[in-house]
TrEMBL record, chains A, B:
PANTHER family: ASPARTATE KINASE, ASPARTOKINASE. Belongs to the aspartokinase family. It catalyses: L-aspartate + ATP = 4-phospho-L-aspartate + ADP. This is Aspartokinase. Pathway: Amino-acid biosynthesis; L-lysine biosynthesis via DAP pathway; (S)-tetrahydrodipicolinate from L-aspartate: step 1/4; Amino-acid biosynthesis; L-threonine biosynthesis; L-threonine from L-aspartate: step 1/5; Amino-acid biosynthesis; L-methionine biosynthesis via de novo pathway; L-homoserine from L-aspartate: step 1/3.
Length: 424, 424
C-alpha cells in the first residue's frame, strides 16, 4: 500500500467521458490498496471561457476577482470527479483550495503556496476516501481566494505530496514520459525511465511541455518522487528523482529552443554595472532574456578595457530589444551593436558529464563532422548549450543523439507503483 | 444615506450585457450616497448546465458534491458583477457564502441559514465598497459548502438585510411589483404600493411567482422591509412591510389557483385520528394537500356521529389521491368517496377585513349576481377562499376586482429609497 498523489490537467478532464475514464484509473489504484489524492485542473476550455466573460466586462479585470472567477473551474471538476468515483463504488470527497486548506501568499493570479495543513485530507483518507483536490488555487491568510497562475496544478500536486509524505506524485499528461529529445526531430528518441530533478530543470525546453518548472523545483527541494505519465495510455512514464537514486547515464537528453535571436554589444567599456545598464531596459519591457555571455575584448586601443556582451531573446522580441540596446549602447559609449535572428539553442543535458571530462569535446567534434558552425557556447555543471543557425537544428540534434547513443536503453529501474491496467 | 440589500435573480444576470446594466443600477444607488449589498444568483441556464453534467456522471449524485458543483454558479456571477462595478468606478468586493460567512445547517441542497456574521461585510462597506454576495449558498459548521436550494437567493438577501440592520431589502424580478390580481385575467389589475407580510403569504399563488415564501416569512419575522421591483424598468415596485406601517385597504388583492381537484369522504365515523388516517397515506406519497375542510354530518342514523371530510390537491394528483383515499375510507368504514377535478380556488386577501364585517357577504353576493356556484368556503383572519368550477375563474375574479374597487389607487406611501433613473 502506498500513498499516491495524482494530477490530471485540463485536457485529461475535458469532458464527462474523460472524467469517467480518470475515475476508472483512480479506482484501479484504490482496488490495489493504495491511498489516492487526486489533483485536477479546470475542464479544458473552461478557463478560457471564464476569462472571455471577464474581458467583456473589463479589459483589465482586478486580480482578486479574477481569482474568485477562475477558481470555479477546478471546483466544478472536483465535484464531478468525486461523483464519478462514487458512481464506481469508490468513496470520494472533494476539497477546494480553502477547504484543504492550501495557504498561499496574497499575490493574486500568481500566488505561491506558503503551507498546507494536511489534517483534513488525512482524515478523509483514513475514512477510506479518495481525496479530490482543486489544483491551481489556495487561500490567503486573510481568507481571500488565490490562484497559483496557469499550470499551477502541478505545483499543487507536488506540494500536497510533500505535505502528506506521499510515496509518489504522478503527473498525468498527453505524453507518456520525458524523451531523450523531441521524437519529431529524432524518430528513435527514447523515453527515459528516470531523470534527475536537475536534468529535468536544465531540459526546460523539453520539460516545459510536460511539467511546470516550479513544480520540478518544488519536488526536488522536498525530495518528492515525481512521475510523468500518460493519462489515456498505460505505461510507467518517466520518474524524476534525486540524483543518487539514478543509474547515471552520461547524457540524459538533448533539449533545443528554436526561434531565438542573438544580440551583441561590441566594445563596451568594462565598468561595474554594464550588464544591468544593458539588460535593465530589456527586462522593463518584459522581454525575456535566455543565454547571457560576456567576453573580454581583445581591443586594447583605448585607456580602459573593453568587453563584448551577448545575450539571446525570442525572435519576436528581436527588433524591440535591438532598439533598446542601441540606445543603451550609445549611452555607454560602446562601439557597435550586432545581432542575428533565426538561431537555435541546442543543449546536451546529463548529470553524468560531471565525471566525464570529454563530453564537450565529443559534442564539438560531432558537430564539426557535420560542418555545423557553432556561434556561441555556454556551459553549466550538467549542461552544454550551443547556438547554431536554425537550418542545422535537425542535423545537429540527430548527430548528437547518435554520438551519445541515446536510443540505447540503460539499466531499467522500476518503483512498482504503476499497476497494470485491466485489459478486458 | 441608507443601507440597501438588493437581490438579482438568474434571468437578471443572464448575460454580460445584463450584468453591465445591473452594475449601472447599483452604481446609481452608490452615487446617491447609499451603502449597497448585492446578492446574485447564477447566470440563467448555468445551474441547469451544471446539473446536466452531474446527471451524466451519476443519476443520483450525492448532495454534498452537488453543492460544491452548483455553488460555482453564483461564484462566477459575483466575480463578474464586482468587475463590472469597478469598471464603472464603483469599488466592489465579492463574497462567497463561506467568505461572509453565511452559516447554515448541514442539510445539503436544502440547507437553512443558522446565522450570519456581518463583520466582514461591514468592513467592506465601511471601506466604501459595494459588497457583492453569492446567493443560495452557505457554509456548515464543519466547513462544508451548502446550498439553500433553488430560489434560496431571496432568503439570502433577507437574512443579510436582517443581519446588517438594512433599511430595505429589494428583490429585483421580471415583474414590476405585486398586483391586485393577475393582469392577464383582469386588465385593470393595479400594482400595489404596499402589502403586509401576512397578505403576501396568503397571496402565495400570486406571490410565489415573485418571491420565495420562505423569504417573506423570514422578512416578516425580522421586520425587514422588503420591496419587489423590476430589474430593467424603473419604478417603485411594491413594498412588503409590517401591518402597522400600511395604509390599510380592506382588500389588497385576489389570488387564485387553477388545476385543483377536490376529494370528499362522506359519512366518516367521527373519531380522533381520522384526519391523520385519511391524509397520512396522501402525504407519504408526496401529494401536496391545499385546503382541508371538515363538516359535521347531519346523518344521525347510526350510534355514533358521522362527519364529512374534504380536501383539495393538484389535478395531476387526483387519480392517485382518490385511490389512496378509497382504501383509507374503506378501512375507516366511511360511506362514500366523491371528488371532482377541474376546479379553482379564488382567495380574497386583506388585513382590513378583520375590521370590516361584511366582506364575506359582499363577496358571496358579487358571485351570486353572476350565477357562480360556490362549492367550498374556507376562511382565515385575513383571507376568504372559495372553490368554484374553473370555467367561472375569469368571471369571478373580475366581478370581485370590481366589487372591491381594486383598480382604484389608495393613498400613496413612498419610502424615498428608489432613486429615479437617469433618462439620458
Amino acid at each position: 500500500m502506498a500513498l499516491i498523489v495524482q494530477k490530471y490537467g485540463g485536457s485529461s478532464v475535458g469532458s464527462v467521458d474523460k472524467i469517467k475514464r480518470i475515475a476508472e484509473k483512480v479506482k484501479r489504484y484504490r482496488d490495489n490498496g493504495d491511498e489516492v489524492v487526486v489533483v485536477v485542473s479546470a475542464m479544458g476550455g473552461e478557463t478560457d471561457r471564464l476569462q472571455g466573460l471577464a474581458e467583456e466586462l473589463d479589459g483589465r479585470p482586478v486580480a482578486r476577482e479574477m481569482d474568485v472567477l477562475l477558481s470555479t473551474g477546478e471546483q466544478v471538476t472536483i465535484a464531478l470527479l468525486a461523483m464519478a468515483l462514487r458512481h464506481l463504488g469508490a468513496e470520494a470527497q472533494s476539497f477546494t483550495g480553502w477547504q484543504v486548506p492550501i495557504v498561499s501568499d496574497d499575490a493574486h493570479a500568481k500566488a505561491r503556496i506558503q503551507r498546507i495543513e494536511p489534517d483534513n485530507l488525512r482524515s478523509a483518507l483514513d475514512a477510506g476516501n479518495v481525496a479530490v483536490v482543486a489544483g491551481f488555487q489556495g487561500i490567503t491568510e486573510s481568507g481571500e481566494i488565490s490562484t497559483l497562475g496557469r499550470g499551477g496544478s502541478d505545483t499543487t500536486a507536488v506540494a500536497l505530496a510533500a505535505a502528506l509524505g506521499a510515496d509518489e506524485c504522478q503527473i498525468y499528461t498527453d505524453v507518456d514520459g520525458v524523451y531523450t529529445t523531441d521524437p519529431r526531430v529524432v524518430p528513435n528518441a527514447r523515453r527515459l525511465e528516470q531523470i534527475t530533478f536537475e536534468e529535468m530543470l536544465e531540459m526546460a525546453s523539453l520539460g516545459s511541455k510536460v511539467l511546470q518548472i516550479r513544480a520540478v523545483e518544488f519536488a526536488g527541494k522536498y525530495g518528492v518522487p515525481l512521475r510523468v505519465l500518460s493519462t489515456f495510455d498505460d505505461g510507467p512514464g518517466t520518474l524524476i528523482t534525486l540524483e543518487d537514486q539514478v543509474e547515471e547515464p552520461i547524457i540524459s537528453g538533448i533539449a533545443f529552443t528554436k526561434d531565438e535571436a542573438q544580440l551583441t554589444v561590441l566594445g563596451v567599456p568594462d565598468r561595474p554595472g554594464i550588464a544591468y545598464s544593458l539588460l535593465g531596459p530589456i527586462g522593463e519591457h518584459n522581454i525575456e532574456v535566455d543565454m547571457i555571455l560576456q567576453n573580454v575584448s581583445g581591443d586594447s586601443s583605448s585607456d580602459y578595457t573593453l568587453t563584448d556582451f551577448t545575450f539571446t531573446v525570442h525572435s519576436r522580441d528581436f527588433d524591440a530589444a535591438k532598439e533598446l540596446l542601441e540606445k543603451s549602447a550609445k549611452e555607454l559609449g560602446a562601439r557597435e551593436v550586432s545581432g542575428q535572428s533565426g538561431i537555435t539553442k541546442v543543449s546536451l543535458v546529463g548529470v553524468g558529464m560531471r565525471s566525464h571530462a570529454n563530453v564537450a569535446a565529443r559534442m564539438f567534434k560531432a558537430l564539426s563532422d557535420e560542418n555545423i558552425n557553432i556561434r556561441m557556447i555556454s556551459t553549466t555543471e550538467i549542461k552544454i548549450s550551443i547556438v547554431i543557425e536554425t537550418k542545422y537544428l535537425e542535423l545537429a540534434v540527430r548527430a548528437l543523439h547518435d554520438e551519445f547513443e541515446l536510443d540505447e536503453e540503460p539499466q531499467r529501474v522500476d518503483s512498482g507503483l504503476t499497476p497494470t491496467a485491466d485489459q478486458d
